[in-house]
User: Fold histidine kinase from Solidesulfovibrio carbinolicus.
Amino acid sequence: MSAQANKPSVLIVDDVPANIRLLADCLREDYAIRVATGGAEALALAGRGRPDIILLDVVMPDLDGYEVCRRLKADPKTADIPVIFVTANHAPEDEAHGLSLGAVDYVVKPVSPAVVRARVKNHLELRAAREALARQNEALKEAARLREDVDGIMRHDLKAPLTGIIGLPQIILDEGGLNESQAMFLRLIEENGYKMLSMINLSLDLFKIERGAYRLSPEPVELLALVRRLFVEFAALAGPRKLRCALTVDGREARPEDTAYLCGERLLLYSMLANCLKNALEASPPGGRVTVDVAPGEPTVLRVVNRGAAPARLRDRFFTKYATEGKPGGTGLGAYSARLIAETHGGSARMETSDEADCTVVTLTLPRGDLAVVTLTLPRGDLAVVGETPAGAPVMVCPAV
Assistant:
């Protein structure tokens, strides 16, 4: 292969031979030169040979340079070729018109060879940089697609062996002959197996939610019971730092008989609240208090409040993916997934923080949904159910009078 073939190619388009010679002489050392003396010929050469850059005169007898540029940019095969106008038309409106057609530069005759060489070199380097960036972006997209495929396969394939593990403790317990400690350990294995299965199912759900492919299957969920359960589960996180957890309803301390129902998916809502509560506990100073306030209604509003202001660099991107600040081992997915879950339920999530008040509030607003209400009764003299409760929800019972 000749040295000429390895050089970037420049197509010079001008109907005046002297102009062509001048441009060719100043570029020949570093570039392979092609020449066209009219607009139609330039279009034909560009379509066949795809030069790396085109130097284009404006005033020509058949097609003017503006029309040639317009046609080049309209053709997908030549649209990405940089075009530099080289012309005697020096009015600002001429230059603006040329650039509006897609040209990358505008050089006024009589040209300076040094300026032409610099402009050609710069625009070829810019084009090469854009092409390299496009290749890198495509490689990153492909890597992301591969990672997502692998993640999906792993989540799916983990479920089968885990289901087998979960079933074994109950089989061993049914056979009997175990002491109390052995039976307790088997129940712990079973319980943690179910937790892992829930985490895998949730990760699969979030994977679908991100792609807009998730179908919500709502049911009546009692929020106060979820919060109380989370307080128990996070006791190990709160205890060593003497953090206190409080549950309130419309700002007052929650009573045992209080309930707050809405229609949603239990596992998703549980994960949403768990992420918000965990973030609040981790962000609280020792001895602080974390409050979860539930305001039932349409919509239902949940507020998770903790002492301490959110880091300044985190505030504008609190709910974005991988946003984290000052938390060793933090993934930046907790608040992000909480927002996704709230939005999947037709709600929203927002965060407010204040250095003056030394406080951070995460507010989750969720539609209550259509709760089907049923009333159950039992024979007199046995137990009677009091009150009304959504279908499928736990009921309060008391001795019948």
Observations:
- Residues 60 and 395 are 89 Å apart (CA to CA).
